[in-house]
Amino acid sequence: MVKLNTAIDELLTAAEAAVTDAIKELTTSAQTF
Question: Rounded to two decimals, what is the model's pTM?
Fold first, then answer.
């Protein structure tokens, strides 16, 4: 169970980072227009 929880935590962290990056890119693109 510990391994599963760790894997889920890693996935959530990766997803959070991806969303943050996407928002940053969208914000940057919006500022360009």
Answer: 0.65
- Residue by residue, DSSP assigns 1-33 as -HHHHHHHHHHHHHHHHHHHHHHHHHHHHHHH-
Q: Looking at the 3D structure of the chain, how many domains does it have?
A: 1
pLDDT digits (tens, 9 = 90+) for 2-33: 899 999 999 999 999 999 999 999 999 888 76
- Do the domain assignments include residue 16? yes
How far, in Å, CA of 33 to CA of 25, rounded?
Answer: 13
